[in-house]
Amino acid sequence: MSTKKNAAYxxxxxxxxxxxxxxxxxxxxxxxxxxxxxxxxxxxxxxEIFCLIGMxxxxxxxxxxxxxxxxxxxxxxxxxxxxxxxxxxVAGLALLAWLGYVFLVAGxxxxxxxxxxxxxxxxxxxxxxxxxxxxxxxPIALRNTAVKLAAMACVFIFVKSKNDLWIYxxxxxxxxxxxxxxxxxxxxxxxxxxRVSLKESLKHLRPCAVLFISVxxxxxxxxxxxxxVYNIAGKDQNGLYENAEKIIYCLSGFISAIGTVMMxxxxxxxxxxxxxxxxxxxxxxxxLIICMVSAMAFGVAAVAxxxxxxxxxxxxxxxxxxxxxxxxxxxxxxFANVIRTQVVLPQKRDHIFVKSVCCGAVVNLxxxxxxxPSMQSMGAVIGTLLAEFTVPLVQFILxxxxxxxxxxxxxxxxxxxxxxxxxxxxxxxxxxLPAESWFSLGVMTLTxxxxxxxxxxxxxxxxxxxxxxxxx
Length: 472
Hints:
By secondary structure, this protein is mainly alpha-helical.
C-alpha cells in the first residue's frame, strides 16, 4: 500500500483516537468530578507504565527490524518468531509484576487497577509492530476503531457515577485486548511463527532494552508528572491537569500518525541506500509537521480559557489556564518526532534518542520536584514544557553538523509567525463576542482556521514561485 494511503488510514485512526477521549472526557468529568478523574488517572497511569515495561522498546525496534527484513520471507519469519518469543517472556513477567502491584501496593485506586489488568494481558498479543513494519496499517485502523466505538457506547450506557469507575476501566482494558487480538488475525498468511532457540530470541533483548530506556524516560515526563501531582498536590489538582494534558496529547497523536508511517518506509530506504530520497522526505515531513503543530499550538492557546469550562464543566475552568502554555509542547514534540522517526531510529543511532529523552526526563523530575509543592499543577506544566524543549535541544547538539537545522528552524519561525497572527485575530474576534458560549467558541475556531489557512496558502505560493517545495 502507498505511503499516502497508509498515512490516510493512520491519521484517520489517530483522529478517531483524538476524538474518542474528547467525547467521553466531558461526560466522565461531570459524572465523576475532579477527584474521580484524578483517581482514575492515577490507576491508568500506573497501568500504562507496566504496559510499557511489558512491551520494552518494541514500538520502535520491532517496526524498524521487520521493515528491514520484509523482502525475505525466511528472514521475516525467523525475526518475527524471535521477537515474539522475547515479547512473551518480558510481557509475562510484567503481568506478574502488575498483579503484585495491584494486590500488595495499590491503595484507594485498587479496584480500578484490578479491572485494568487486561491492559497488561494485551501486551502478550500486541503485533502492531509487525503489521507496521510490513506497511500494513488498514486493519489496525479499522478493527481498533470498531472495537473502541463499542467501548465508547458501553461507557455511556453503564458508567453513571464515581462508583462506576471500575466499569470504565474494565471496558477500556477489554477493548485494548480485543483490538490486539483482532489485529493478530491479520498476520495469517503474511508471517509464520517458527520456534527459534532461546539464544536467538534473546539477541533482540539488548537493542529493545536500549530503546526501553528512552521509553521509560518519556514515561517519566509524560506519565510520572500526573503521579507526582496526585501525590503532592492531591486528586483535584491531578484531575485538572489530566484533562488539560489529555487534549494536548490527543492532538499529538496526529504527529505520531505521520511518524509511525514514515519510520518503516525510511528504514527500508535506508537499507537500500537511497540517501537523497530520504533527505527530501525528511525536509517535506518537517515542513508539514511544523505547519500542523503550529496551527494546533497557537489555536489551542487562543481558545483554551473558553473551551475548558464549556467542555469539561465549570469545575474544570483552571484546566484551560493549564492548557494554554501546555499547547506549545506540540511544536517541540513535532520537531523531535521527525528527527527521531526519520533520522535517528532508521540509522540505528538509538543512543541519540536515549540521551535526548533521558535529559528531558531528568529536567522534568527536577522541575516538578521544585515547583509542584508551591505551584501545584502549573508546576507540572512548566516541567513538561522544559522537558519537551530539552529533547530537540539535545538532538540539535548531537546532529547539528549533519542536518540542515537552519532550514528546519526557518520553518518553525515562519509558521510561528503565522500562528501568532492567527492567535491575535482569534482573541480580537473573541473580545467582540459573548463570553463562554459554544457559538462564540465556534466563531473563534472558524476565524483561526480561515486566517491560518489563507496565510499558509500565500506562503506556499511564494515558495513555489521562488522554486522551493511546499508540504502540500
